[in-house]
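Posting this for the archive.
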Amino acid sequence: MSPQIVVILLLIGVMAGFLSGFVGVGGGIVIVPALVYFLGFDQHTAQGTSLGVLLLPVGIFAVMNYHKSGNLNVNAALMISAAFVAGAYFGSKISISIDQKLVKQLFGGFLLLVGIKMLFGK
């Protein structure tokens, strides 16, 4: 792996970590597009790599800060985590079985809809 790629990967990690701690996003919204557009990963590899990041306790310090400030609903987080496991399993099975161009289009459409809702919604 070249030093340039290492620097890009580290910058992606720092940005994803910052945005995760700042507004609660990181993996899919930052890492996947960055890997696709800056490093030429295909959609499926970018998604798999992003999920690989989640296997480690990457957000532990951000979670500790939110917990200390009283801004963590532990019960909700545990329930979402349990459901996330099943959702991630079935979502990945479906994703890898369909054309990645369609996956990229669905992902882009989802981000666009969420962005519009956040910009102009109540």
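The helical segments are 3-23, 27-39, 43-54, 60-68, 74-97, 100-120. The two ends are 46 Å apart (CA to CA).
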